[in-house]
Amino acid sequence: xxxxxxxxxxxxxxxxxxxxxxxxxxxxxxxxxxxxxxxxxxxxxxxxxxxxxxxxxxxxxxxxxxxxxxxxxxxxxxxxxxxxxxxxxxxxxxxxxxxxxxxxxxxxxxxxxxxxxxxxxxxxxxxxxxxxxxxxxxxxxxxxxxxxxxxxxxxxxxxxxxxxxxxxxxxxxxxxxxxxxxxxxxxxxxxxxxxxxxxxxxxxxxxxxxxxxxxxxxxxxxxxxxxxxxxxxxxxxxxxxxxxxxxxxxxxxxxxxxxxxxxxxxxxxxxxxxxxxxxxx
Length: 281
Known about the structure:
mainly alpha; 9 helices; 83% helix
């Protein structure tokens, strides 16, 4: 048998050999250690951002305004469309049931409360997470690959102060504004359906909404949106900062930022629902 035939036989035999499986305890132990290490790094990042909020001397206000403008431009159209359609859908679905009991006017109550308390903040947060949050991860991931973040640290400039803090404050401030806008568009969607297809006068719909939706309901959504903005910005920046230095790193960081942000938004909304229910509001 020649040398080539021998090498081919050895390679084919090794390819057919079954891969050695890790014991279950070793597999679980590695995953637990990896999770603990990731949790430690995440807490360290959150702590660094918290300390950075007290160092406004190094804060670049122009970057803050630029990030706010980009957040508004990238989200306004989609927030308008989705919020309006959510109001339309809620009005249609609620009218089917309420009109059976002659209570069609209460469509305004259902749409107003659902949009202001739940759907407005959540829809705005999901749109911002898919646009702005993913943009943060992609931008910081590219800077990580191009070693721009390392250059900042070498020059003694904190990447948290220079890159993360302006983005965090921009999204945190813009989220309540986008939520109020989403609330308005959702109510207008319900008003459009009620006045055109449900034979409910627009003025009657608007008066009923004002009588049912109060300042407390609007404040509930605003408080949610404030925390949603913090979670979106922190997640996007953190995924971008820990991006791997390879060709697939940016894509993985971007998709991970979106998925993690949406998961945190849903979990946060559920937590707020429990808290508000316990408080009776």
